[in-house]
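Dear colleagues,

As part of the handover before I leave the project, I'm documenting each prediction I ran so the next person doesn't have to rerun anything. This entry is a single chain, and its sequence is reproduced below.
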Amino acid sequence: MFRQAVRSLCRSSTKSSLIKETQKRLLPACISNSQRFVSTEVSKNQAAPAVAAKNAPAKQEVAGGSIGKVVAVIGAVVDVQFESNLPSILNALEVQGRESRLVLEVAQHLGENIVRTIAMDGTEGLVRGNLVVDSGSPICIPVGPETLGRIMNVIGEPIDERGPIITKTKAPIHAEAPAFVEMSVQQEILITGIKVVDLLAPYAKGGKIGLFGGAGVGKTVLIMELINNIAKAHGGYSVFAGVGERTREGNDLYHEFMETGVINLKDKSSKVALVYGQMNEPPGARARVALTGLTVAEYFRDVEGQDVLLFIDNIFRFTQAGSEVSALLGRIPSAVGYQPTLATDMGTMQERITTTRKGSITSVQAIYVPADDLTDPAPATTFAHLDANTVLSRGIAELGIYPAVDPLDSNSRILDPNIVGQKHYDVARSVQKILQDYKSLQDIIAILGMDELSEEDKNIVARARKIQKFLSQPFQVAEIFTGHAGKLVQLEENIAGFEKILKGEMDHLPEVAFYMVGNLNDVIEKAERLAKET
């Protein structure tokens, strides 16, 4: 009897110490679900009674702090059995006795007090019998200005070797979409300062933009310029979520951000927060890292009232990871082997990306189309949520025109006279028409030459070539590569410039003067400079 009492006492004290230690490491800000963004100082004070209560022996009846043990490990899926007080679905659990932190997310309740979880990191070395502690809340991550210039993983841990990310606030990665009463019904253009985007495929505040482009066509530079311009024009921040892409590309992007000043390690002027869950991560991390990035962006929108840019590269990998997780959980697959909850998973995330009365999150999502099949369920489900498409063309990049945005393939839902105004709409459609006419004349020019064209067609070709050149633009983040000073063009100047070219008011200027400039004043200055040189 004495020995049994001693063993029971030891087990009780071990549990108490485990709970205390875990409470320190886990994120206590998420204990209160009544307010999403909770100050860590306040939450620590709130959490103190709960921690004290957990010192009671035997069954723990408080939220969080329940101890279970691993009963099965199947790759990224881990089954955990609890004596009582099962953790809620989507709660974060932490495995004890490991050097590296391993967080599990509850996905299913199986019966017999067993929960099935998805691991957010590798399960190598995990064995049956390992102790697991329930945090009492979903995965929580640090949010706030302190995340700018830093790289974190899916559970909010820094991976840039620059020390811990110490913030005043933490938030759970799972949240409801804003209520209808919180949403803004106004349709408004997000001015990017990039001519071809603002004129032909404008971005809506709180909209979702699909970014299509292969390797080497300037996708990364376009992303960096958008981040830079949003910071300068709107004072806003950006969040970049690397979902299931190459680690090398994430590393290159980080160093390019530092070279171009988007990230500044010397002071607090960084404009972007980075969240990475690359392709070497288990499917649980890749399926949740987009939500981690979105949570960081939601803080800037809801608390600081910012217009935030959220980049997700690549949104297809989010769906792909969800498919892997679904198969591991034993769900019956749907069309083409995707998860039966494909539309729900995508909709749950996309509906959180919107404009509210406080601010907006505008999302630019790189989209990989498997086997170029647009009817594949993954891209087809994504297309339903998009407001605009920005297509980067290799053919335009080969002409030396950057950004290599295809003016005919790119489109936007808000290119509507009721939203952008009649003048903007008419100029944009006229630009697209003249470029389409030029495209149809190119075969005739290639066979017969320019001399066989009518005077009207010659004017179309000359103006279309000037418009094509004028759609190019020197980027501020690319100054160190191109030697051209970057230009940010206001929307009114942008529309007026193309309108004058269409009317023929710029016919007397040479075509080369329209290449890599900002507004029409830059064109005139360049033409005068070229005239003096000749």
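The chain has a mean pLDDT of 86. The radius of gyration is 27 Å.

All the best with the project,
I.
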